[in-house]
């Protein structure tokens, strides 16, 4: 076999291997992108006035750019309006956010196109305050940020231990289980 034929065969082999690598990467990249989405690093930060408290884990904010955004609190799930402790949870959030300017760190968007975020008033993390006050559960299925979720879990543990808020009820039902039972 001549040196030119060997070189041509080597080039063909390299091109075939490169094509295979590209094919594999085309499948891996979407999976990595989906995983990257779950790392839960803030994407955008919004600041604005709370216009409405929908329930214990959802608010509407009018940003400083006059954009109205719906925000679902990251990592927590509050009782539904018609669920035991639902109205109290909503009232607690209204009290925490009355006439407040908030900062929202976008962590994700949900299937309803709401921003899922960490909500702060000054330096106080309201997501954490809701759990610590016994007004909401940690939402394990959607809590992916290790640092935030560990703090939320610790706050929930302390609230349970001290029978704070909904943990003073005889048998509180997690909102995701309550919703499932109503379907």
Give a description of the structure.
- The protein has 183 residues and is α+β, with helices and mostly antiparallel strands.
- The strands form 2 sheets. The protein has a 5-stranded mixed barrel.
- The protein has 5 helices and 8 strands, in the order αββββαβββαβαα.
- The protein is 42% helix and 25% strand.
- α3 packs parallel to α4 (146-161).
- Residues 28-39 have low confidence and may be disordered.
- It starts with a helix and ends with a helix.
- The chain has helices at 3-37, 86-97, 126-132, 146-161, 175-181, and strands spanning 45-55, 58-63, 68-73, 76-77, 101-109, 115-121, 124-125, 137-138.
- The chain folds into 2 domains: 1-37; 45-181, OB fold (Dihydrolipoamide Acetyltransferase, E2P), CATH 2.40.50.
């Amino acid at each position: 076999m001549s040196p030119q034929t060997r070189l041509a065969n080597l080039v063909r082999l390299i091109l075939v291997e490169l094509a295979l690598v590209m094919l594999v990467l085309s499948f891996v990249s979407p999976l990595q992108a989906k995983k990257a989405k779950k790392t839960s690093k803030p994407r955008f930060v919004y600041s604005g006035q709370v216009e409405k408290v929908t329930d214990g884990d959802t608010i509407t904010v009018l940003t400083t750019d006059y954009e109205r955004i719906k925000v679902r609190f990251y990592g927590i799930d509050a009782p539904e309006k018609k669920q035991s402790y639902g109205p109290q949870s909503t009232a607690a959030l209204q009290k925490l956010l009355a006439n407040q300017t908030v900062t929202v760190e976008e962590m994700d968007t949900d299937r309803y196109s709401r921003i899922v975020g960490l909500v702060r008033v000054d330096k106080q993390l309201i997501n954490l305050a809701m759990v610590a006050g016994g007004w909401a559960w940690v939402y394990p299925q959607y809590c992916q940020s290790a640092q935030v979720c560990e703090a939320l879990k610790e706050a929930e543990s302390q609230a349970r231990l001290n029978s704070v808020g909904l943990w003073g009820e005889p048998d509180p039902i997690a909102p995701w289980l309550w919703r499932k039972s109503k379907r």
